[in-house]
Design brief:
11 helices, 279 residues, 0% strand
Length: 279
């Protein structure tokens, strides 16, 4: 397939799945296999992920600037907001730095990704079913970020560790489950997950991009494909974030849970018949 067209398709996949609780890693593995895309250094994936992260920054620009200004003015709500971000990011960041190479070498396979999708989907379904028995009201469209406590941030941070350890778990999915278990409503848990993606994915992406700086010319399609994929990822992620917040204000995550299980089963079948190679 033409490298530029591949860049468009993969940019759509990345933008759609990065912040949904369905694992962008699993979907990119399937998409790359189906279209025959080969980026051995994973440079292309790293770059277009940054496009999705920039979409969240753009979407929440005014709020981020307000919280940053409040931090410098010593406003309690803003200080607590940034402290919660740091606390929730630390566990995943530490585990990622310590075990990144081992995880990629041992666990970054389609079978592990598929298994994580299935297990994560079952957990998400159970959590939402339990929550539905307790909470009977809609969550509203606006997240209540100022109500998040340090304990809840720790819950979210601990949950994200599973996403680092087991590819396919989904960082957003794990953090949302952690938020729900800690007592956050769906919209607040989802929005908080978006904010956590900025430092975690941004730092990881920039660091990986720096390490892969010598291989940028080896990306199929070159710089034009990188630019196309990043722009497409940004635009699609922007629409995805906006849609997800509206969706979870009136619906639960059980639909995503069922989809995860189905996607995991499909990946296992594709591996079994040889469409996807078991790395």
């Amino acid at each position: 397939m033409n490298p530029q067209l591949s860049a468009v398709l993969l940019g759509v996949v990345e933008g759609l799945t990065e912040f949904l609780p369905v694992s962008s890693t699993g979907h990119l593995i399937v998409a790359e296999s189906l279209i025959g895309y080969r980026d051995t250094a994973e440079t292309f994936t790293i770059v277009i992920q940054l496009g999705a992260i920039l979409a969240v920054v753009f979407f929440y620009w005014k709020l981020l600037m307000a919280k940053l200004g409040g931090l410098f003015r010593g406003q309690q709500a803003s200080v607590r907001f940034w402290l919660n971000i740091v606390v929730a990011c630390i566990p995943a960041a530490v585990i990622g730095l310590l075990f990144e190479k081992k995880i990629k070498a041992l666990l970054f396979t389609p079978t592990v990704v598929a298994t994580s999708l299935i297990v994560g989907g079952i957990i998400l379904y159970v959590v939402e079913t339990r929550r539905a028995q307790i909470v009977h009201t809609e969550d509203g469209l606006e997240p209540d970020l100022d109500s998040i406590t340090l304990r809840q941030a720790l819950w979210v941070g601990a949950a994200q560790v599973f996403a680092v350890l087991f590819p396919g778990t989904s960082r957003s999915g794990a953090s949302i489950v952690g938020g729900l278990l800690s007592g956050l409503n769906r919209v607040t848990a989802t929005a908080f997950s978006f904010f956590l993606g900025i430092p975690l994915l941004g730092a990881a992406g920039l660091y990986s991009l720096y390490k892969a700086r010598g291989t940028l010319s080896q990306v199929p399609g070159g710089s034009s494909a990188l630019l196309i994929g990043t722009v497409v990822s940004f635009v699609v992620a922007l629409a995805s974030v906006s849609w997800l917040l509206r969706y979870v204000s009136r619906h639960d995550f059980r639909g995503f849970a069922v989809y995860r299980v189905a996607a995991g089963v499909v990946i296992l079948i594709l591996v079994a018949v040889g469409v996807i190679q078991h790395a």
